[in-house]
Design brief:
It is a single chain. This protein is an all-alpha fold. About 75% of the residues lie in helices and about 0% in strands. The chain has three helices and no strands. It is flat and about 55 Å long.
């Protein structure tokens, strides 16, 4: 595609800010929490928790 015909995105500056924020949040908060959760919770308990949250999504699947 020709560089002169590039599509301008008026929200690009905002998107970049949110991407940067989400990237840092994942790296500094969510990833360590997930690693800690995996380290201290037995696999059987993690499966129960996963199944619980999957069951919460059942109404959406039924409607679909």
């Amino acid at each position: 595609m020709d560089e002169s015909k590039a599509i301008a995105d008026p929200l690009e500056p905002v998107n970049r800010i949110f991407f940067h924020f989400n990237d840092k949040l994942y790296y500094w908060v969510l990833k360590p929490v997930a690693r800690g959760y995996k380290a201290i919770m037995p696999e059987d308990i993690r499966i129960v928790v996963r199944n619980f949250f999957n069951n919460l999504l059942a109404p959406r699947s039924i409607v679909n």
